[in-house]
Design goal:
- The structure is a single chain.
- By secondary structure, this protein is of the alpha+beta class.
- It has two domains: 35-96, no CATH class; 102-303, no CATH class.
- It has eight helices and 13 strands.
- The chain has helices spanning 35-42, 47-54, 58-64, 67-78, 90-98, 146-153, 201-204, 238-244; strands at 9-13, 19-23, 112-123, 127-131, 155-159, 164-173, 187-194, 210-218, 224-231, 259-263, 266-272, 279-287, 294-303.
- Helix 2 runs antiparallel to helix 3.
- The radius of gyration is 28 Å and the shape is elongated.
- The chain starts with 8 loop residues before the first strand and ends with a strand.
- One of its GO terms (cellular component) is nucleus.
- InterPro entries: F-box-like_dom_sf.
- This is Probable F-box At3g61730.
Length: 304
């Protein structure tokens, strides 16, 4: 079959008086349903907008549900780089990151009071440095056991961390020794989890649970409740120094609102406290089985 493309011509008179012909371009072949065009447009849409557009017709559903679209949206909204291979679809990861879920919704919901999303950070290595003291430089004594470091120095190194994107929240819960509904809440928890945690069957069926790594008490007045989680590989980064510069992000002395700071490879929180008799600090971790990878970390501060 022979296809001919016809063009139209117009006759004009040039300045010398002789006829001059010009060719007009054929009608535009642009389609409003170009996949590449809408994939680019999708980069400017949030999750709700993507779902709304996907429900308009089958064609949009096919394009908007592409995994690359949700990967871009997830990394963009969490403000983290590509972690590489993941075990779930990015659409599912996006949903669990932004649907308002947090760990206390699944367990101890009756103790939960309030929470705030801090943000996301990245574990490049498989080792974390946990500390209740945000004073530099951060030192690691490899000769001490984890229990001794936690008890005497309020810090420890935790190995076998699942690398990738981690999401950090600050939780406010009722103290575990109090059953009064009128309790104002005397415990805050820095709660960090791997982005895939809520999608794993081991977490959903309750077979994965938190283990207490150790605890530490301060027997005198504590001016603040603080905690930090750092990727060991990046302890000497400038971003770690920025977190330890408390004056740049912690509230003034009588500002009782919790404050948090997150960088590409670390997260930290601090809340100024009124007069108190000290703190009980507890460190917990959740593994994917007895000898599995660590997929969630908690640092809790409870008023004594």
């Amino acid at each position: 079959m022979k296809i001919e493309m016809r063009t139209r011509t117009t006759k004009r008179i040039c300045c010398c008086g002789s006829p001059r012909f010009s060719f007009l371009a054929p009608p535009s072949l642009f389609s409003w349903y170009e996949e590449d065009v809408w994939t680019e447009i999708a980069k400017f849409l949030d999750g709700i907008s993507l779902v709304m557009l996907a429900t308009t017709c089958k064609w949009f559903n096919l394009i908007m549900m592409e995994d690359c679209v949700w990967k871009y949206a997830c990394l963009r909204d969490l403000q983290v780089p590509d972690p590489g291979k993941v075990a779930f679809k990015w659409k599912e990861l996006y949903a669990k990151a932004f649907d308002g879920c947090h760990s206390y919704m699944f367990r101890q919901q009756e103790k939960h009071i309030d929470w705030m999303r801090i943000g996301a950070f990245l574990f490049d290595s498989h080792s974390a440095f946990l500390t209740e003291r945000l004073i530099g430089p951060l030192k690691v004594d490899k000769e001490d056991t984890m229990e001794k470091m936690l008890e005497l120095k309020g810090c420890c190194v935790l190995n076998n961390i699942k690398a990738g994107i981690w999401i950090a929240d600050l939780q406010l819960v009722r103290c575990p020794v109090c059953d009064l509904n009128t309790c104002d809440g005397t415990m805050q928890t820095l709660d960090a989890r791997h982005i895939e945690l809520f999608l794993n069957e081991g977490y959903q069926d309750g077979s994965w649970d938190y283990e207490t790594l150790g605890s530490h008490d301060t027997s005198k007045h504590a001016d603040g409740a603080s905690g930090g989680i750092f990727d060991m590989k990046h302890l000497k980064d400038q971003s770690t120094s920025d977190i330890l510069d408390l004056k740049s992000w912690v509230g003034k002395q009588k500002d009782w609102q919790p404050k948090a700071m997150i960088t590409l490879h670390a997260v930290a929180v601090k809340t100024n406290l009124q007069e108190n008799e000290g703190l009980h600090i507890k460190y917990q971790a959740m593994k994917t089985g007895k000898d599995g990878e660590v997929v969630s970390i908690r640092i809790s501060q409870q008023l004594l």
